[in-house]
Amino acid sequence: MNPTNLVLLSSQNLKECTNNFNQINLIGLTQFGRLFRGNFHGQHVLVKILDDEKLKHITSKYHDENLILKEEIKFYTNPNLKDCPNLATLIGYTWERDIKGIVYDINPLDTLDNIIKKDGMNWVQRINVIHEIAKFLKFIHDQEKQDMVLNINASHILLDKDYKPKLFDLLLPSEVKMLKEQLKMSTSHIDPYFSLRGGEWNRSSEVYSFGIILLELITKRISNNENIDHTSLNMDNLLHIWAKKEFKPNCSLVHKHLQEDWLYSAKDGVAITLLALQCIEFFPANRPLMSDVLQNLENLSVLQHLVDARSSKREKKFISS
Q: How far apart (Å, rounded) are the C-alpha atoms in residues 293 and 278?
């Protein structure tokens, strides 16, 4: 494998880039490894280090210890995705025996999960983030062939310094069956129809996961249950269960503090709550397409106001020039 314009890095390069994988630079964990902030030749970058222990079941099955690395590079260098606004540019990769990793051209702020926990975004920022994620998913879903399963999870979405979301955790379609066998119940962002009823993973599964992220953003509640003992788990604490119990026609599940923010409207609160509940419908056929999700979001008054404001700024700049 020798993708054009990618730099073949050494493990020493990655150590220097991350200050020997210093915990201070650790952003979080992904499906198969860890994310670090780094500095590569004076440039802020993101470094993803793959964990051999987490890759064992894949490498043993396919007899290729570099399979995930190869597939991810193949995805990110796919010419059909070059115009996708929410995919980072790859700088280089390392696939030595002891260290395997990828360096991305992105100045990372934090994971979306961590930022939600820190309550670090206002209403407008949250709407902008969910709008960007929706545009990203629509772009991917519009591709004739979707080669990778998108592991949509707030802990696997990174925000850059401009609060632009980037998705970094991907799965091989062939690994979906294996993932399903490991699931004992539907928690967090995983489609319950897929995990409980033997359904097939498809684009509607990603719509479900998107709906959970949307709920997290508007309710300020986290749906991260991977480390909870399932035998003692209270089902009412799961975000999708809580939301369905709380929801009533024409109601808003938007957190009361967000309702006090600039550009929030009660009408938007009701509309975006309904959209989130539609996305997490149990039966895939009842969920909207991402094109419909995007249209519903762009009908919100907050987004229309922001679009009008940006258009006015561009017009003023053009006139003054």
A: 9
Q: Residue 178 has which token pair?
A: 């294996």
CA-nearest of 226, 210, 109 to 154 is 210
Backbone angles phi, psi at 85, to 5 degrees: -70, -15
Q: pLDDT by residue for the chain (321 residues), tens digit each?
A: 445 578 999 999 999 999 999 999 999 887 778 999 999 999 999 999 988 777 776 666 667 777 778 878 887 887 877 777 787 788 999 988 889 999 998 888 898 988 998 888 999 999 999 999 999 899 888 887 765 666 788 888 889 888 999 877 666 555 555 555 554 433 567 888 877 776 667 889 899 999 999 999 999 998 765 544 444 455 666 898 999 999 999 999 999 999 999 999 999 999 999 999 999 999 999 999 999 999 999 999 999 998 877 766 655 554 544
| pTM greater than 0.90 | no
Of 156, 143, 167, 3, nearest to 85 (Cα)?
167
Give the angle 209-214-220 at the CA atoms, nearest 5°. 120
Strand 89-95 to 7-8 pairing? parallel
Q: Name the burial class of residue 297, with classes exposed (0-12), middle (13-18) and buried (19+) by CB atoms within 10 angstroms of its CB.
A: buried
Question: How many helices, marked H, and strands, marked E, lie in the chain?
Answer: 12, 11
- By the 8 A CB rule, do 75 and 88 touch? no
Amino acid 124 reads: V
